[in-house]
Amino acid sequence: MPPAPATTSAYPPGRLAFPHRHLTGIMGLQPHEILFLLDTAEEWIEPNRTRAAPDKRLAGLTQINAFFENSTRTLLSFEIAGKRLGADVVNMHAAQSSVKKGETLIDTAVTLNAMRADVIVIRHMSSGAVRLIADKVDCPVLNAGDGRHEHPTQALLDALTIRRRRGRVEGQRVVICGDILHSRVARSNMLALTALAAEVRVCAPSTLMPPEIEAFGVAAFTDFDAALEGADVVMMLRVQNERMSGGFIPSTREFHARYGLTLDRLARAKPDALVLHPGPMNRGVEIDSDVADHLTRSAITEQVEMGVAVRMACLDVLTRGARGVEGWA
Ligand code: CP
Description:
Layout: H1 31-50, E1 62-67, H2 73-84, E2 88-93, H3 105-114, E3 119-124, H4 129-134, E4 141-146, H5 152-166, E5 173-177, H6 184-195, E6 199-203, E7 219-221, H7 224-228, E8 233-236, H8 252-259, H9 263-266, E9 274-276, H10 289-292, H11 300-318, H12 320-323
Parallel strand pairs: 1-2, 1-3, 3-4, 5-6, 5-8, 6-7, 8-9
This protein binds phosphoric acid mono(formamide)ester.
Phosphoric acid mono(formamide)ester binds at residues 71-74, 145, 154, 278-280.
C-alpha cells in the first residue's frame, strides 16, 4: 500500500531526512523523503542554468553508470549530473561489455564493486535486477529503470516539473495515459504522485491496464475523453513494444484514434493543463506534434532539464554518508 499522502514539506524533527542507502524505487519512500529529494533538486536548477560557481562536492568519487538497456535522457543526465558535481564518471554499455560473452549479472556487479565504485547507477531490462545488484555491492545504487518495475528518478523529475509549473502537486488531477501495463514510469509516478496527495487517473485500453490497478490509489479509465475532464496535468506514455509479446493493440492508427493526445482532445482538460511525456515520444501515435511542441502547454523539455537537477540531488544525498557529511556519516 502507498504511504499516507504528504500535505506538508516539513521533515520529522530529529530524523535523517533520507535514511535509505539505495534508491531502488519510490515504493518504500515516505512522502517527506520524496519532498526532501525534490527540495534538494530545486537547489540545483539555478546553478545549472547560470553555471556560475561549480560545486564539486563529489570530487574524488567514482560513479559507474551501468546501462544494460538503451537510454538517451537518463544516461546522459546521470553523466552530466555526476560530472557537474565533480565525480569521475564511467559509463558501461552492456553491448560493449562482457555481458555479451555470457557473464552473469551478479558477476558483473561483483566486478564493478571490486573496482571500488562509490556509487552505481543501473538500468536493466529485468524487473528486480537493480535490487539484486544493490544487495551485492558496498556502495549506494540508483535505479535508472528496471524492466516494468520502477524508474524512480523519472517520477521525481515529473513531480518536480509539476510542482514548479502548477505551484504544487497536492490536489492536482494528473491523467497518465498509454501503456500502463508495461510502464515503470507509470508505476513510479502512481506511487510518488499519490504519496504527494495528487488525484491520479490512469487511462489505457483494457489490454494495457494492469489488474487491481486501484490498489495504487488511482482511478482507472478506458475512455480517454472522460479521463481528461478537468485535468491539470496530462502525462502521455508510449506503447512499450519491446516489453510485449503478441498484439496488445489492434494497430497504432487505432491507438492514436482512441488514446492519442491531440489539441482537440486536450481541450477537455483545464485551459492551462500541462502536458508531460517522459520520452522517447512516438509522434503521431500517443501524442501529436502540435501538442508535444506547444509553447505554453508542453513541459517536455523542462522535464529533461529537471532530470539533471533531480539526479544531482540523488547522487549528492546518497553519497553523503560516504563523504562524511555531518549528520549523515
Ligand atoms: N525517460 C527515459 O527514461 O528516457 P530514456 O530511455 O531515453 O533514458
